[in-house]
Automatic annotation (TrEMBL):
Residues 23-131 form the Knr4/Smi1-like domain. This is SMI1/KNR4 family protein. Pfam families: SMI1_KNR4. InterPro entries: Knr4/Smi1-like_dom (IPR018958), Knr4/Smi1-like_sf (IPR037883). It comes from Flavobacterium piscisymbiosum.
Length: 141
């Protein structure tokens, strides 16, 4: 978590100083997923961001936005064991996919055709996703 905390500080993620009216358990119940601990740490301690990290632009949704955003795009309903967590601002969403064995992948996938065959893995965990971005690893290199 230390490296993750350093990334949050380096990119000035806005710290959450008030308790959210939405709980992580609400998101887990809605998605029928147990969210990864590194992502839960982000949700409970930071608000969403809208900026470049490394060479890629990302917008991560805040705890208060996740359920509504996923409902708007039908992500949870259409993609098995997947929840959207943000966007790249170019017609694709960033999501967390958890397989039946609880292995996590952070994925990039188009909003227009919600089919897992179009998923591109961009991290093996939420922390790995941010570390890759911080190290300027391009998603499609």
């Amino acid at each position: 978590m230390q490296y993750l905390q350093e990334i949050f500080e380096k990119y000035e993620f806005p710290k959450r100083n008030v308790k959210s009216y939405v709980e992580v358990t609400d998101v887990e119940s809605y998605s029928n997923l147990r969210l990864p601990i590194d992502y839960v740490f982000y949700l409970e301690n930071y608000f969403g961001i809208d900026q470049f990290i490394g060479v890629e632009f990302i917008k991560l949704w805040s705890l208060e936005e996740i359920i509504e955003a996923n409902k708007s795009y039908n992500i949870v309903e259409e993609l098995y064991r997947t929840i959207g967590i943000g966007t790249n601002g170019s017609g694709e969403f960033i999501g967390i996919e958890i397989d039946p064995y609880d292995n996590v992948k952070v994925i990039l996938s188009p909003f227009t055709d919600l089919n897992s065959k179009y998923n591109t893995e961009i991290g093996t965990s939420f922390a790995d996703f941010l570390i890759r971005l911080d190290n300027k690893i391009e998603w499609f290199s």
